[in-house]
Amino acid sequence: MAFLANFTAIDFETANRRRDSACQLAAVVVRDGQMVREQMWMIRPDPFFFSPGNIRIHGISPADVQHEPTFGDLWGEISEFLADDCLIAHNAPFDIGVLIGCLQRHHCDIPDLRFSCTRLIARQTWPDRRRFGLKPLSDWLGVEFKHHDALEDSRACAKVLLAAGIARAAESIEDLEQKLRIVRGKAGPWGVSHASKKGNPRKSASKRKTDKGLPKRTLRRGGSQLLPLPVNPFDEHAIVAESEAAYADPATRSPASTEPAIDLQRLSIRAEFIQPLRGQQIVFVGRLQVISNEQAIDLTRRSGGVYQDDVDASTNCVVLGSSDVDQQQVDDLTGQAELEILTESEFLSRLGL
Known about the structure:
It is a single chain. The chain is an alpha/beta fold. It is 37% helix and 20% strand. It has 2 domains: 7-197, Nucleotidyltransferase, domain 5; 218-351, BRCT domain (Rossmann fold). The protein is built from 13 helices and 15 strands. Strand 4, helix 4 (92-105) and strand 5 (113-117) form a beta-alpha-beta unit. The radius of gyration is 25 Å and the shape is elongated. GO terms for molecular function: 3'-5' exonuclease activity; DNA-directed DNA polymerase activity; nucleic acid binding. Residues 189-226 are annotated as: Disordered. This is DNA polymerase III PolC-type. Residues 6-170 form the Exonuclease domain. Its EC number is 2.7.7.7.
């Protein structure tokens, strides 16, 4: 299911503590989940005053904008670019506050605005995360950007929202808001109503367990062998629970294993964005130890790779498990110069672990 979101991500940088002191604005337009257009404006704040603290944050000095238009001069162009899109910002109360402050300062009519906040969305999507600033979230998702540059921040903000949509298997922003129980923010000449959480999200019912602590439903692979049903890769609680149960069960994992639970949520989202295995035809030989083969196959597909059951002429990568691998088979594979042979650890490292 694709997250076909339509919105415009925005970010302001300000010259000082005044909310009407915008010195840079950027906007990134997203259509059907793809960034299709972007624009950045340098702005001469009025009054023309820069705080040293703000300069240290974003690096914009008075000399950089002294000959630029004011916000009032630019508003016609900006409003045409934003149109009537749903605006998305990280910490939206700040950016929407700057937008309204600048409109008021320059005696521009305040249009009817619809907006939401990726900080709030991230809190609802990944409640177990500790930090929800744009930089730590982007680092966790594998999004590289230069913080406190309005255009870079707008792109990162858009990617955080797209990641949240993927994580919650949403079809649109409206669907995502409904799943997260978030009320969209609104603003106009009458004032501002910020995006907010509507009550407490309902907790999903816990899965029934067997005597061995594994989910009751299972998938059958390789004849009589039973493996746990793969969990939702975006459900951290389920991932940890499955990992603990699997390591305790000698039928699926070595009891001597001390590997920590893998953050499949992070790996899955990074895979969607970075596509580190694009163009790779991959075969898994033997049973993996850190993650299940089913999870590895899912990560391969999310990363742009193609999973194959057996090695053939099109295969260019083989991942070796730590058990159930015949040494003669390994020797035969290693002797094929066109094949890249990876251990499970190397495979996970390539995905960003």
